[in-house]
Design brief:
The chain has 131 residues and is α+β, with helices and mostly antiparallel strands. The protein has one domain. The protein is built from three helices and five strands. The chain has a five-stranded antiparallel sheet with strand order 1-2-3-4-5. The longest helix has 20 residues. The N and C termini lie far apart (73 Å). The model has no long low-confidence stretch (mean pLDDT 93).
């Protein structure tokens, strides 16, 4: 005889959208948009139940030059998650995955990020012309 489970309903992990998974998705989008000229690196650290992710844009053709764009922190519960825009200094708090995606879009679509992406793309072009 099997004992009755007293555990809560455990959500299907494929249905959980974590901040890091959304950051990786956006990294894949940037790589596709730039045909691999620009990629992202997401550095993860965790200490004392706090998880930190730092997203940088990397230029493989320029000796992997990188520019940090944002930092995300959250605890074991995932939300609320804090987003910090490295260029503007703006800070956001997301209470769920929908808010996180909106705020991530605010940072990635910002004028500061656009200027970084444009500048890095220009450097790639200039380096190719020098070859």
């Amino acid at each position: 005889m099997t004992a009755e489970s007293l555990w809560c309903t455990i959500p299907d992990i494929d249905q959980i959208k974590t901040p890091s998974s959304m950051m990786f998705e956006q990294g894949a989008a940037l790589k596709a948009m730039t045909k691999g000229r620009l990629v992202t690196n997401i550095k993860k650290t965790d200490t004392h139940n706090m998880f930190t992710y730092e997203l940088s844009v990397v230029v493989p053709s320029l000796a992997n030059y990188s520019q940090k764009i944002l930092k995300v922190t959250h605890d074991l519960m995932i939300y609320p998650a804090k987003l910090f825009h490295e260029q503007s200094g703006d800070e956001f708090t997301a209470h769920d995955d929908k808010e996180f995606l909106t705020q991530l879009g605010t940072i990635l679509g910002s004028d500061e990020t656009r200027l970084i992406i444009a500048g890095l793309n220009a450097q790639v072009r200039l380096a190719a012309e020098d070859d």
